[in-house]
Structure formats: structure tokens, C-alpha cells
Specification:
Elements lengths: L9 E4 L6 E4 L5 E5 L2 H7 L4 E7 L3 E5 L2 E7 L5 E7 L5 E6 L5 E5 L13 E3 L15 E3 L7 H10 L3
Parallel strand pairs: 3-10, 10-11
Antiparallel strand pairs: 1-2, 2-5, 3-4, 4-9, 6-7, 7-8, 8-9
Length: 157
């Protein structure tokens, strides 16, 4: 059973507490990426990201460092990390400046962030768990709308 998504706002931050952020709207998606980059960046089987409209997101304190990464899909993202402790907090896709992808583990309460979709599943590690009702995509979908539709199907407002 999937947990209910709490009403906003959502808050989160880094491991050392130097960086904090606040989000004033419900997510439009929760996705797990199984690409090798996300496996290496997290040290885990995948990276779970809650996707929000950029207008709802605000960094409320602290300094971040930005690292621009070109993904296997060819798309570029700016990855924001805490300048003090290095925690990966969110990323901003250059091709979709209206979106912000928040690392679910950096939310103060990540318990509700269960992926509705999984991408790069062909690179999935054998011990990675995928929910039976989640959409699975090989590689990166051409349009992000498929991820948002999977979320709306599982989490209607």
C-alpha cells in the first residue's frame, strides 16, 4: 500500500543543516532513476526524486555548489549540493527550467516519496526494489509527461 502524500509545505535540507529549502505545492511526480550516474552519486541502487514546479521551490538558507552534468540521455542538469557537507539536494534540468527534482532523502519527511515511475530500468541492480504498480521505462523517456501521468494515476488529488 502506498502512503498518502501530505499537504504542503514540505521542507528539507542537507546533512550538516547549513542548507534548507521549502516547497509550497504538491509534487507532480516521484521517480527513481537507476542509471549508473545516479547509482554512483548516491552510493545506492537508485536515486528517488520528488519532482516539483520550480515556482513552488525556494532555498531558504545556506550556500550550495552547482555541478553541471550531461546525462546518458544527452540532457544537462545542474546538481545542487551543500557547499559545506556535499549532500546532493536537488537538480535543475536545463531543458525544463520550470522543474526542480528534489532528492527524496533530503526531505525532512521522505516517508511518502514512493516512486510512481522508474527510469533506466535496464541498468537496475538485481537487489533494487520496484513497486508492482510503478511504470518502468528503459532509458530516459522522450517526454517527462509519462512520469507525471504515472504519478497522477497512482496519486490523484
Amino acid at each position: 500500500m502506498r502512503p498518502a502524500i501530505p499537504e504542503p509545505p514540505y521542507e528539507g535540507g542537507c546533512l550538516c543543516g547549513a542548507v534548507r529549502y521549502r516547497i509550497e505545492a504538491r509534487p507532480i511526480g516521484v521517480n527513481a532513476c537507476h542509471c549508473r550516474d545516479c547509482q554512483k552519486l548516491t552510493g545506492a541502487t537508485n536515486l528517488v526524486m520528488a519532482i516539483f514546479e520550480r515556482a513552488a521551490f525556494a532555498k531558504t538558507q545556506g550556500e550550495t555548489q552547482v555541478w553541471r552534468k550531461r546525462a546518458d540521455s544527452g540532457r544537462e542538469v545542474d546538481i545542487e549540493r551543500c557547499a559545506a557537507c556535499g549532500t546532493r539536494l536537488w537538480h535543475e534540468p536545463l531543458a525544463a527550467a520550470n522543474l526542480v527534482y528534489v532528492a527524496a532523502g533530503a526531505l525532512d519527511d521522505p516517508s511518502w516519496a514512493v516512486p510512481a515511475s522508474h527510469i533506466w530500468v535496464e541498468k537496475r541492480l538485481p537487489h533494487a526494489f520496484i513497486q508492482a504498480d510503478a511504470v518502468q521505462v528503459e532509458g530516459q523517456p522522450a517526454e517527462r509527461e509519462a512520469l507525471f501521468e504515472a504519478f497522477r494515476r497512482l496519486y490523484p488529488e
